[in-house]
Each structure stands twice: as structure tokens, then as C-alpha cells.
Design goal:
Helices cover 20% and strands 35% of the residues. It has a 6-stranded mixed beta sheet with strand order 1-4-5-6-7-8. Strands 2-3-9 form a 3-stranded mixed beta sheet, with no helix packed on it. The protein has one domain. The longest helix has 14 residues. Helix 3 links the parallel strand 7 and strand 8. The chain is built from 3 helices and 9 strands; from the N terminus they run αββββββαβαββ. The N and C termini lie far apart (45 Å). With 165 residues, the chain is of the alpha/beta class.
Length: 165
């Protein structure tokens, strides 16, 4: 007898079913903040959406390259199907952006983070500093690759700089 494959309504539902507890539970927040080693990522919402934060590094993904955090924001109204989610992968870094790009790339490839309801996928590198005034060819090339291969918006941000939903 063939075993039925379980379907989930969202990445959040799948991670919960797989036994992963969020770092910040699913609830309405106007601002989502995640930090590590003095680096801070901020995401502003309109204050009506529910959001949840998971630790990826060393918790959901324990081997290989992986990013630090996953922020999920449910943008669809309650009981609306299919749900709509913003999925933001966050890497909190000192200065090594090329390593951060590799970590995000490997995390995006993981099947447990892929779901059709994730219609807004973002990858954020939060660093102490980025090369200013000169274009960063590594970052520019990665932005194009992420858009093409993962339908994902990759951006570098300074610590504490606010991202908007």
C-alpha cells in the first residue's frame, strides 16, 4: 500500500508538524526584529499580519551551509485559501558577504522551505558594512541569480536598517 504524502497549508505548518518550535510564535506584530552578535534585522509590517520567526542555523538545518533565521509573514486574511506568505531568509554577518550569499543559496535549495503559498521570497544579508559607492559585482551577480533561480529578492542591508513588507 502506497503511503500518502502529507500536504501542508504553509511552510509554518510544515515546520511545526516536523517538531520545530519557533523562536517567536505566530502572532500579529507591527515590527519583527531578529538579532545575533550585535547584528539586527528589522521588518515593518502594516500591523495586521501574523508573523513567526524560526532559527535555521543549528536547529532546522544542522549540516552544511545555512542562513541564520527564517521570518514568515502571513499576508492573507484569516481563513482565506490559498494563504499568501512572505518568506524572508536572513543571514546576520560581519563583513563576508560572499560567504553569506553561499549560505542563503544553500538554504533556499532545501525542500522544507519550498511551498506554493510563499509568493514573496526574500533573502537578506545584514552586515556591519557594505562596500559603498562602488558596485559589488559578486552581490549584483547573486541578485540576478536569486531572482532567476529562486524567484527571490536578495538585498544587503545595514544592521538596524528597516525592511518593509
Amino acid at each position: 500500500m502506497k503511503e500518502e504524502k502529507k500536504t501542508y497549508n504553509s511552510t509554518h505548518e510544515r515546520l511545526t508538524a516536523d517538531g520545530f518550535a519557533p523562536e517567536q510564535a505566530l502572532q500579529v506584530r507591527a515590527k519583527i526584529s531578529v538579532s545575533e552578535n550585535g547584528k539586527c534585522y528589522l521588518l515593518a509590517t502594516n500591523g495586521k499580519e501574523q508573523s513567526v520567526v524560526y532559527a535555521v542555523d543549528g536547529y532546522i538545518v544542522t549540516e552544511g551551509l545555512r542562513c541564520d533565521k527564517l521570518v514568515l509573514v502571513k499576508r492573507s486574511a484569516k481563513d482565506l485559501a490559498p494563504e499568501q506568505w512572505t518568506e524572508a531568509f536572513v543571514e546576520l554577518k560581519g563583513v563576508n558577504t560572499s560567504h553569506a550569499i553561499d549560505q542563503l543559496r544553500q538554504t533556499l535549495k532545501k525542500s522544507q522551505f519550498k511551498h506554493p503559498t510563499n509568493d514573496d521570497i526574500r533573502a537578506r544579508i545584514v552586515a556591519q558594512s557594505f562596500p559603498s559607492n562602488k558596485s559589488n559585482p559578486t552581490m549584483e551577480k547573486a541578485k540576478q541569480e536569486f531572482r532567476k533561480d529562486y524567484n527571490c529578492d536578495l538585498r544587503g542591508m545595514k544592521t538596524g536598517q528597516e525592511d518593509k513588507l
